[in-house]
Amino acid sequence: MSTQPAPARPVESPLAPVEPFVDPDTAALYLQTSRRHVLEMVRQGLIPGYPLDPYAKKKDWRFLLSELRACMLSCDQRPPGAHKPPRRI
Question: How confident is the model over 24-33, as a mean pLDDT?
Fold first, then answer.
């Protein structure tokens, strides 16, 4: 039985670089569309988004640009123009 301490292993930084969340205005610039259109798409589930408070009546959405890019490139899931919102009367 050895009384020497085990060799130290390198500790991974818990603060590794992470992608920041962006607001609807930045997401709209990235997608080259309007803020309103981005919010309509996230409410319909066409693009991924995260509400800051999921229980709030009026949601304040945030987005990851990498997820928006992946969603736009995934033609297998949603061909262009496949999901049109219902027309308001």
Answer: 96
Domain count, the chain: 1
In a domain, 48, yes or no: yes
Phi, psi dihedral angles at 6 (to 5 degrees): -65, 150
DSSP H helical ranges for 1-89: 24-31, 35-43, 65-73
pLDDT, average across residues 32-53: 94
Our CA angle for 65, 62, 70, nearest 5°, is 30
Residue 4 sits at the vertex; the CA angle it makes with 3 and 7, to the nearest 5 degrees, is 145
Tokens 């020497």 found at: 4
Name the DSSP letter for residue 48: -
Q: For residue 42, what pLDDT band results from cuts at 50, 70 and 90?
A: very high
Please give the residue range of the domain that contains residue 67.
24-73
